[in-house]
Every structure is written in C-alpha cells, then in structure tokens.
Amino acid sequence: MGDHFEKGQHALLNEGEENEMEIFGYRTQGCRKTLCLAGSIFSFGILPLVFYWRPAWHVWANCVPCSLQEADVVLLRTTDEFQTYSWKKVMWIYLSSLNSEFGVTPDHPLITDEEFIINRAIRKPDLKVRCMKVQKIRYVWNNLEGQFQKIGCLEDWLSSTKIHLKFGSGLTREEQAIRRLICGPNTIDVKITPIWKLLIKEVLNPFYIFQLFSVCLWFSEDYKEYAFAIIIMSIMSIALTVYDLREQSVKLHRLVESHNSITVSVCGRKAGVQELESRFLVPGDLLVLTGNKVQMPCDAILIDGSCVVDEGMLTGESIPVTKTPLPKTESSEPWKTQSEADYKRHVLFCGTEIIQARGACSGTVRAVVLQTGFNTAKGDLVRSILYPKPMNFKLYRDAIRFLLCLVGTATIGMIYTLCVYVLSGESPEEVVKKALDVITIAVPPALPAALTTGIIYAQRRLKKRGIFCISPQRINVCGQLNLVCFDKTGTLTRDGLDLWGVVPCDRSGFQEIHSFASGRSLPWGPLCAAMATCHSLILLDGTIQGDPLDLKMFEATTWEMALSGDDFHIKGVPAHAVVVKPCKTASQVPVEGIAILHQFPFSSALQRMTVIAQEMGGDRLAFMKGAPERVASFCQPETVPTSFVSELQSYTTQGFRVIALAYKKLEMDHHSTALTRDKVESDLIFLGLLILENRLKDETKPVLEELISARIRTVMVTGDNLQTAITVARKSGMVSESQKVILIEANETTGSPSASMTWKLVEEKKHIAYSNQNNYINIREEVSDNGREGSYHFALSGKSFQVISQHFSSLLPKILINGTIFARMSPGQKSSLVEEFQKLEEGRAALVTSFCMFKYMALYSMIQYVGVLLLYWETNSLSNYQFLFQDLAITTLIGITMNLNGAYPKLVPFRPAGRLISPPLLLSVIFNILLSLAMHIVGFILVQRQPWYSMEMHSVCTLQNESISKLIISPTAPEKIGSNGAFTSFENTTIWFLGTINCIIVALIFSKGKPFRQPIYTNYIFVLVLVIQLSVCLFILFADIPELYRRLDLLCTPILWRVYIIIMLSSNFIVSLVVEEAIIENRALWMTFKRCFGYQSKSQYRIWQRALANDPSWPLLNQTSFSDMPGCGRGVSYSNPVFESNEEQL
After folding, report:
1. CATH class of 263-386
2. CATH of the domain spanning 500-668+678-693, picked from 1.10.260.40, 3.40.1110.10, 1.10.8.10, 3.30.930.10
3. Catalytic positions, written as ranges
4. What digits encode the pLDDT tens for the residues 1007-1047?
5. CA distances for 474 relative to 57, 382, 1118, angstroms
6. What mean pLDDT is predicted for residues 118-136?
7. pTM of the model
8. Which of 450, 459, 675, 807 could form a disulfide with 1123, with the two C-beta atoms 3.0–4.6 Å apart?
9. CATH architecture of 394-480+845-949+983-1081
C-alpha cells in the first residue's frame, strides 16, 4: 500500500499505549465484493483461505480507501515489529430506542452537552453512534475531534473537584440509560469457544493445509502407509491442541463468570440508593459500599470513607492495602497527577476483595465507577491472556527464511524434474506428480511436529523442577536472557525481617541502641507510640494482618490490637476504629490506649506513610514512618541529630534496613479527615531509627556467581536505601571485592544550567565501632586518578535516574553499560529502567535443541531430495516402502528422541549461535548438504562403472567364497513398482543405502552435547534408537535374503560393492565430524576470523562498550557535570529497537 493515504484515512489508535495500532479507513464496494465472491467459487475456496491468512488482502480486494469518518470497514495494523493486520466492521448504535421511555431528543440537555466523549460521539439529529470493537474494547467515533476513542471509562482530564461535583451525587436514570447503551454492559464475558470453531481454526493452519496437500499427493501415488501415519499424527496433534484450547477456554470462563453476577448498591441523583446487577454499571455511577468481603465488579475511585483491600488477584501478594478517598482539591489538574503520590491509592480495582469498608463523616463508603468491562484492571489481565504478545520477531523471521530457502530449493528441483520427465516423453499426469512430489521431499511436513517435541520435553523438565510455563513456545526465547534485574527484599534477601533494634534520639543526639534481643520492653514515650500506631495493620477475624515489616514493628511493642465498640465515644473517633492498647503486664504506661483515626498510606513514590491517632483522654498526634532521608526532610531541623548522616550510614553500610520515625501534636479543633496530608506532614519532631535485619538467602550468592561466570549481567533495582543496596551487592557477589563502585548523584537546579551531576568513588573501609560487623562505606571527595583500574559499577538513586533521563539523556546509555545498583526506585522508575535496558539488549537465543532439529530436518530433506533428483535423471525414484523406511523408521524415531537431552548443569561464559541464519549454522548445513551430494553422485556414477553393472540385468549375487569374476547373473526385466514410477535398479539400491544410513550419521553428528546440553551418551533412548537403526540397516545391506530385498525393492550387489558403500559412508562421517568439531564448533577459530577481517558487532551495546573502552576520560571521577555542557544534554540521544540483536553471531 505504501505510506500515501487519503486525507483522514489514517490515524493512530491508543497512541502511546502498549496496544497502539494504526487504523485505516475503507468503504466496501459492491463490484469488488462480487468479483471476490466469484473468485472464491471458481478457486474452490482457495481465495477465502488466502484472505483468512492475509486479512489486509481481504480488505484491499473488497474495499476502496476512504476517510475514517466515512469508513464502514477499518484495517488495523500493530505498530510493533510484527506489523500484524486485522480488520473490523464499523457498527451503529441507535439512541432512538430511548426516546419513548426517557424522551431523548436531539435538543435534550444530555445530548447537547458536548463536554464528555459519550456526548461528542452522538450524531445529530438522527441520534446514532458509530463504533467498533477491537480486542474486546469498544471505540466510538468522536464527531468533534474526528477520531475513534476508547469508551467505557471516565476521561483522564477530569480533576478531583470535577469528579466530586459531577458524580458525587450519582447519575440520573437518563444518563445511566445513555451511557449503558453506548458503553455496553459491565461484563468480562469470555465465552467458551465451541469445539467446531477451535477445530476449523486449527485445521486452517497453513501447516495442516500443506499436510493435506502432501497426503492427497501420496494417496495418488499409492504411498498409503506414510500418508496414514501423517494423518494419524495430525489428528492426534489437532485433537490435543483443541482439547488444550478448550480446557483453557473453560477455565478462563469459570474464572471470570462470577464477576458478571454481583449485586451492588448504586446511588442515583434522583432515585436514591437501589440494588442493581453489576452488569448494568456505567462509568460515573456512584457505588455505596457496605459490609466486608465484597468483590469489586469494576474499577472505582474512592471519594468517601476508606477501605482495606486484598489485591492478591492482581499482584499475587495477599497483603492488605489501605485505600483512601480522593481529596477534593481546588486544583484543575487531572486527578491522576494532582499529587505526588500514586493515584492508585484512591482506586478500588476490579476483581479485588474489600476486606473492610469504613465510613467517615457521612457514615457511608462511596466510590465513583471509573472503568467497566474489559477496560478494568481485571479485564486488562484477561485480555492479555486472550491476546498474548507474539513471539520474538527475529526467531519467527529466521524460521520463515529457513522454510523459504527449502521452498526455493524445491522450486529448482521442480524445474529440473519437469525438464527431465517432459524430455523423456512421460505422460503429463506423471510429470505433474513427480514435480509436486519434490515439494513434499524438500519441505518435510513433519518439521513443525519434530520441533514441537523439543518444547514439550523442555516443558516437562521445567515442570519437574517446579517451574510452570503457560506459553511453551516462549521457552526457547528464555535463552535470550543476558541481563537479570533483581529486587532486593524477598528476592536476594530473605522474605522475613528481623527487628534488630531501635535507636532513640533527643535534643542531644542519638541515644544508646535498644536491642529487642535482650527481652526488655521499650519504655513508654512517643517512639513507642509511633511503633504501636504508625502502620496499616488490620484486625480480621481476631487475627492481625498486614505488611510483614509493620507486623514485626508492632509485635516488638508487645501491645495489643482491638476494634472500638459502639459505646466508644471520643470526639472525632468513628465506631469500630482500630485501637491499640498496652498489654496487661505492661507498667508505667499512662494511656489506656490509642485510636488510629486516619491513614495516609505508604507509597513507593512518597517513601513514607503517616497516621493520625488519638490518645484516650489525651492528645491527638500524627506519626510518620519511612525512608530516613525523607522523614528527616519533614522534621524541624533542630530535632534531627547532627550525626544523622553518619549514624544512618553506619547501619545501612552493614546491610541493615533502616526506617525513621517522627511525630507531632495536632490541634483538636479539626476533624481528622479534614486535615490535608501537607498540613499533617510538616514541622515534625524526629524520634529515631528502627533497625531491621534482612539476611541474604542461602541460594543468592551461588546463583549470582553462576550468572556472572556465564557473563550474564546482574542488576539490583530496589526501593531500599542506596548504601544498603551497595552493601548487599557486595555481600552477594554482584560487585566483587576488586571492583569499584562509583556513586552518581544528579539534581535539578534553578536557573541555568537546569541540572547537575556529580561522580564520587565509593571506598570500602573498616568501621572501628562496629568491628564485629561487616565493612562500611565511605564516600571520598578527593581520590587519585585510579578509578579506571579494574572494572567498576555505577550506583544511583531513583531521583538521580529521573534527572539523568530528563537532562542527561546522552549520558544515560553510557551509565547503563555499567549501571548495577539502582536504589530508592519507584515502580514507574523501575519500568522505565527496564525499557532503557531493553534498548541496549544483547539479544541471543539459546535454541541449541531447536537448532539441532532444524539442521537435522534440513539435512534429512536434502539427502532425500538429492537422491531422488539423481534417480529422476533415469526417470526412476525410490519406492514407497523405501520412502516409508526413511520417513517413519528412521526420521520419525530420531525426531521423537533427539530432543531428550537435558540442559547442561552449568552455564558457560559464552553464548550459542544467536540466530538460525548465523554463519556457523549455515556453514554446517551447506557443507553437509554438499558432502552428501558429493557422496551420492560418486555412488551413482561409480555403480554404473562396475564390471557387473548392466542396465538389462537386475540381480547380481555372488556365490559364497567365489570372486566377482564368477558371478551368477539373473536376467530380469526392469519392473515398475507401485504407482510412483519407481523400478528396481543398482542405482536405486545404492542411493537408498547411502541416504538412509547418512540420515543416521547426520543425527549423530548434529546431536550437540556440551557445553549447552548434556552429552549425547546421557540420552540413552536416542543412542539406543541410533544403534538399532544402524544395526538394521547393516543387516539389510549384508543379508542376502531375497524376500527381504523384494519387499524393500532392493537388488543384491556383490559383497565388495557393499563394502564400498560402507567406505563412502565412513568417509562422509569422518569428514563431517572433523569439520563440525574443528571448524563449525571451534569458537576460538571464529574469533580469530573476526579479528582478521576486522568484524565488529553493530549492536548499540557493543558500540557503546567499545567507545567507553577507548575513552580515557571515562568513567568520570571527582567531577560535576552540567546539563548545558557539550555532550551532556538532550541534543545527543540514542535509539535502538527493543529486539535489536547485537550478539556476536558465532
């Protein structure tokens, strides 16, 4: 089509999102549709099949381009590297059906108001809406903006004020009806796919169509046995696939079925609160949440009250999460960006369970429906299962190229066959059969099945190790891993945290550490009160539940938790609030208990949490807990000890996790919910440090050592303190003792330049005061110029990463090359970091098993191809039983057992060939094809020059103990065998033996073992199969059994000629083995070739690596860079496709 479009014909759908697509407008044309229909009939269904495989061709053939506004068909194309096409019909929704019930007319206020997308989509005066459905999401045509837009969710531009004013009182019945009709039902409807649909979809796979063609051809040639074998294998494969897909469909249907049948309470603007089925919900509806253990049927914004939610369905972690109401601010900014905290803390996600719902002043918990149906978080999860991302493009492309090479070879063979058989005067029917037969020989129909067995075996081995894969085709792609990002807590370190101690402080500075191991209880004071109240723990069925850190901290106080009863009357304290009380054995605690009134939940972006609490009969207090640096920034400077930095460093450099605590007294004249977070989190009094020990897992160091020895980069991305992360990196072996760590700190500045970045060497020294502990780290301001000695690692915080991304984008790839430690990273920053690493990706594919099978199947087909073409020269061929023996008894058994080799137990420090078309792999295939061709030609010509050879004589056997000069020659006429035109001949016998045994030799040579797979001798079944096959072939070769020869359509030859055949095969084996081991698999030789010819990888990663290695000024030390310096700003940037391969192809 090109890139030239009519005005308004082309646009982007979901621009900037993960599921971004290009959209093209088309209009169906009657005459084109008629021609396509006629073509479908006259092509006997081939044209519709082609259109099924190529959706874009269907649209181009049936339609003409037009603007999207006029289109009745749209063509969609993904913007990823796959460029996948699909097409959808544009439908109409008619609002006239609402006229009789609600009197909806073109001049109705709800129709004329064009503030929202729903209103802008209504075409006036006929009251209808153009829409389409793509991957379960409905899109409507925005008449004002002239584009298709997603419907079924509230607009992103809405401010918190607008949400409260517009939707805080609910929708009218008319608004609900209009939205319900346009947005569709609030259902995640996954229908169970009928078996006949799955069957048709599977059967229409190009692979099975090719098999059908092959089987039909074989039946016409009376090659029934192998045809039946392929049919049985195909039926079994189709049945298993359909069964698998059906089971997945049923499971997914059952998983989401309950979502569509929930009863909810909805508050209408005039109708009041009413019970409603969840499928009738629309964006903007006002939900009234009552009771506990409630499943959310949609995504909703909490506007009143608070909720404790179990988000295990989304995150996999069943830790209760506290949701707070969206504050009603005066800001006109979009509600998602109006605060620095994560907006998700106000959102109740579909599929999550509300454990507790607590009302505020009004006594009710209310939420505005944000998204419905497949637009919700749960719907998006289901859609990702229904429409998974395609496989790695390069692997797919290489496989297609490989098959196209085989097709090209088959085409050459077809031309050769046509010439030979036409010149020989054969019948047209025979000529066509022989020409088509070449295709099924050159492109083996069993190739996909053989490759699938390797994946099945790999999946089974993973399952034995407790690893499950829902997309088995992706197992091979795991070999692409060259960089692994680790979280710290719970991944490198143990899940549980041990409370080591607490360091109180007062005006004079830090006090002596209080160790909980001593068994002494913490004395009463603000620090004790902070530990007892500043958490998100809840009491559920008499059990305290919540974050493990919060639980450890609360348990250390030995206090108890309860819920306030109806008789609990304290001003501003709601009934059923969480109350913490000192245990009965505690003494000298002047308060009866403390009620937790309000929470500002912990956020990774904010790195802190705050609670408002009320002492029974005492003061109202605010307590803060979080990252020490953040907490200290909210405290009165005089309350933060002058030794804060050194004290914090002394613990973090030992690998401890450190939490800071602070508090202040609040005025009693405001309700707790009326206080803003900014007002509460100011002028705090610093209380001290909470020290938690997080030990490394036993398996961490060995795993990292193996990855590093295999030259797979390891990176730590954590939300914890930077110094703690550096220490853990050293302890775990991620950074070795001989390697340096360079700390990068970047900050935004006022004026010009807009940002600065400093580079400091982190030096390891012994800490005298904690000599029994590990080392600690000191940042040197002045260092000698020895930073380039040995290797180095960069360490930086999330804040610095953000500044570098915005102001030093040209330096970012340089930093990522050696960036190992990223601390205080928010979830969004973690995602950005992974995306940046992907731009530098060193793509490789450890497809050794699949590559072996590709090579073998290619050689098997080419061996058979070469032999058959040589026999075609005499208008001869292999007989059906000869084909059957090679196809079924040899290749099928090898294909089933060849992939049974397990993975080598140790990773090696280099990678296998990264692609199917890598030079070593291509050389291996081409060399063995040429070697087999030479052997077949030598055998074909040499047999014709034997003294006993005669075209008229077709049986030569020697008497025992007699020489060749005394042959018994049995004259027989050449006899055609079956219907495929084959006849017995010495050439046929020679070619068959050479080809059959050569298939076994090739399987042995290509069964690569170390260093990526276990040695071939460990694959006992495969070795046994090869031994039996070779023994049977040798027995047939040397056994003078007339009946056996007659069955296999072979001729007896002299013993000496049989020895010649063995010599040719042995020579082939020795040469192939020597070349494979000495050249193809000789990594050192290929590296030498690359150096001699000056080859250098063109990947971004290698280019940057070479540039930095030759840069004497890198890495920077004891320097400060500014964003306006040459080469530091945004002017010099880089771009690299995510899947760009820069593996050195070996």
Report:
1. mainly beta
2. 3.40.1110.10
3. 487
4. 876 666 677 777 888 889 999 999 999 999 888 888 888 88
5. 29, 19, 46
6. 87
7. 0.71
8. 807
9. Up-down Bundle (1.20)
